[in-house]
């Protein structure tokens, strides 16, 4: 038995070596390995494609080379990049795909990415990120005292995903959402100010057209409704029941770490409308409280937090309904639990969603008030 396994292992190593030797080898210094691809429109709505690659030549003054040019299609741009770049351009290692917000203002933009999905070497785990402003502002920015821009961008997005602020938006996820009738797409968005920073989540309609933006402070509420809490979730909200903020120090604020959150949705159909009842249970640890402990006891504080969260979540849902977009995927729940009724409204789920009854209840349990009362 042992000898048979050794023979199999030897055969595997031999075949792997043969397969490796069959391909054409290009020295690393002769390659231009694109790590960022950008898609944007200029002021005259011409398609602008950009790419950024590391430089491996030790004699080069810069360790990143970036190019931007006009092209008819993404694939068409490659021949121009080949003419500009030092080595043979390859897209097999692209980490981030940047899409200018100007592109999303047109509902027919998604087919521009056809070659990305058709090319088998293009990773479907590539992050898709919207740029609020010209893509060139990000593409040609060289951050001081930070990693190269491709690595920096990936770390910025992944960090905010872990902290339950950014949505997971890869090429694979975007493709699924674009063709999912029961959900509308959403993408993380960045902006170049003094530095490149995550600013929130962009919401699109069923045709991929830009509708609205949720800022970084409120994007966590979208993820709570989608039951997508990651490693960390910290919320800071005012206790409006305590009155005004109390001057420049905002003395009605409380911050808490959410150690556990469970979101359940019960789906029914009554009187020609879908009914969705959210039941959200949270266990939290108070991390910061700017009002005196004697003003409320723990049970009262739990009820106050529940009220504030319920209001914020319901306001967000009403905003989605007013815009006829469903980034929380309630259409998927309707299809799963009320399929016969969903079939009737599938072609115009956006309207059915807007007319649905959606109720949110929140149950909060404070596990810890912190080390000091």
TrEMBL record:
Q: Which positions fall inside the Spore germination protein N-terminal domain?
A: 25-191
Which terms are listed as keywords in the entry?
A: Germination, Lipoprotein, Membrane, Palmitate, Signal
Please name the Gene3D superfamilies in this protein's record: Nutrient germinant receptor protein C, domain 3 (3.30.300.210)
Which subcellular locations apply to this protein? Membrane
UniProt main location, coarse: membrane
A biological process term (GO) from this entry: spore germination
Checking InterPro entries in the record gives:
GerAC_N (IPR057336), Spore_GerAC-like (IPR008844), Spore_GerAC-like_C (IPR046953), Spore_GerAC_C_sf (IPR038501)
Q: Name one Pfam family in it.
A: Spore_GerAC_N
Per its UniProt entry, which superkingdom is the organism in? Bacteria
- Report the sequence similarity comment from the record: Belongs to the GerABKC lipoprotein family.
Q: What is this protein called?
A: Spore gernimation protein
